[in-house]
Amino acid sequence: MKRKLKVGVVGATGMVGQTFMKLLEERSFPIQELRPFASENSLGKKIDLQGASWPVQVLKEGCFDGLDLVFFSSGDDISKEWAPKAVKAGAFAVDNSAAFRMDPNTVLVVPEVNGNLVTKDSKPQIIANPNCSTIQLVVALKPLLDKFGLEEVRVSTYQAVSGAGQGGYDELMEQTSNHKDDHQPKTFPHTILFNCIPQIGSFNDEGYCSEEVKIMKETRKILGQDKLKVSAFTVRIPALNAHSESVWVTLNKEVSRDQIMATLSEFKGIVLQDDPKKSVYPLARDVSGKDPVYVGRVHRDPENPKMWLMWVVSDNIRKGAALNGIQIAEQIFFS
Q1: 152/2: higher pLDDT
Q2: Binding residues
Q3: Would you say the C-alpha torsion 21, 25, 27, 29 has a positive or negative sign?
Q4: 89, 41, 47: which is closest to 69 by C-alpha?
Q5: Mean pLDDT score, 247-263
Q6: Which reaction equations make up its catalytic activity (predicted)?
Q7: Mind listing the domains of the chain with CATH numbers?
Q8: Span 161-168, average pLDDT
Q9: Alpha helix locations (H) across 27-100?
């Protein structure tokens, strides 16, 4: 029987935090005590989970005492300050922010890919949850890396507004319901309705936005391939939830399509939807609310026999955030 854990969730009332709660319920995650943390605006609220009601708290000194595990989904600044305090209090800190992802002393984990980095023998520490668009990419790449080797990866993403949090979701819904009006964007740099915005995050001097840099750096770290060539271009689109990616993968050798398909289909966490002549391929609105990473439209490049193209779609709030964090916890406590 699994032992029940004392769990904290920082950012419990946000979009990812609410998905944490939903998944903890769905997966019957064994909880002895829940401490949901949020801003002072949420004081007085209660979170219902597994037949109990837990009052929302604010972060303060000693708030993590006695906890086994704390999930963080409240942004870089809060994680930088409070995640080390959770570890000092004796808890594992699973952090969904970018604060520690590229820290050489912090593991960056996708359980299907490099879950061996955390086990039941691990000591309390900060464990970084990767960027949402990176997670689905590396799940699709890992079986190909292991079987055939990777030479180069190029990815163009088409990312849903939920990736920008509740504000992004609400902004698209508001613009859609008043689609004839002029809109003043708040969350995004331009109106997202009927539009595609080739910017996610801020730009550096080389012309890359921060989301692209995250994908390129995190992919190498998670796969353990420091020399792998990775190039990314990210676009925000007016889909509500689930990110889509077109991926060009150059392998180390020539293989058949049957070999590629068998390798992908056998990998835990991947669902193949690939019958393009019948218009069967993953779609964001179908994938939203589901756990796996979906792959389709797998085909060879006509000019380079070692290059393969594929379409990768996953729910960015579930597998791209909350689910991956819970799977990390399950790897530590119940593997």
Answers
A1: 152
A2: 13-16, 41-42, 101, 159, 162-163, 236, 316
A3: positive
A4: 89
A5: 98
A6: L-aspartate 4-semialdehyde + phosphate + NADP(+) = 4-phospho-L-aspartate + NADPH + H(+)
A7: 5-130+320-334 (3.40.50.720), 133-316 (3.30.360.10)
A8: 97
A9: 76-88
Residues designated as active site: 132, 243
Query: Which residue ranges make up the annotated binding site for phosphate?
Result: 101
Amino acid (1-letter code) at residue 246: S
Helix, strand, coil abundance in the chain, percent, nearest 5: 35, 25, 40
Q: Which two tokens stand for residue 141?
A: 């790449």
pTM score, two decimals?
A: 0.97
Residue count of the chain, please give it.
335
Unique residue bearing structure tokens 């991947």: 270
Average pLDDT, the chain: 97
As a whole number of angstroms, the distance between CA 247 and CA 155 comes to 4
Q: Which of 12, 2, 81 is nearest to 45 (CA)?
A: 12
Per-residue pLDDT of 273-289, as tens digits, reads 999 999 999 999 999 99
CA torsion, points 48, 52, 58, 64, in degrees to nearest 10? -130
Task: Give the DSSP letter string of 307-320.
Answer: EEEEEEEE-TTIII
Which residues participate in the annotated binding site for substrate? 159, 236
How far, CA to CA in Å, does 105 sit from each of 64, 72, 100, 127? Answer: 22, 18, 9, 10
Reduce the DSSP state of residue 9 to 3 states and report it: strand
Whole-number Å distance between alpha carbons of 13 and 194: 29
330, 333, 334, 288: which is closest to 313 by C-alpha? Answer: 288
pLDDT digits (tens, 9 = 90+) for 68-102: 999 999 999 999 999 999 999 999 999 999 999 99
Of 174, 143, 87, 156, which Cα lies nearest the Cα of 255? 143
Average the pLDDT over 194-211 and give the result.
Answer: 98
Q: Which helix (H) or strand (E) holds 250?
A: strand 243-251
CA-angle at 218, arms to 140 and 225, nearest 5°: 75
- The DSSP secondary-structure symbol of 80 reads H
Phi and psi, residue 235, nearest 5°: -135, 135
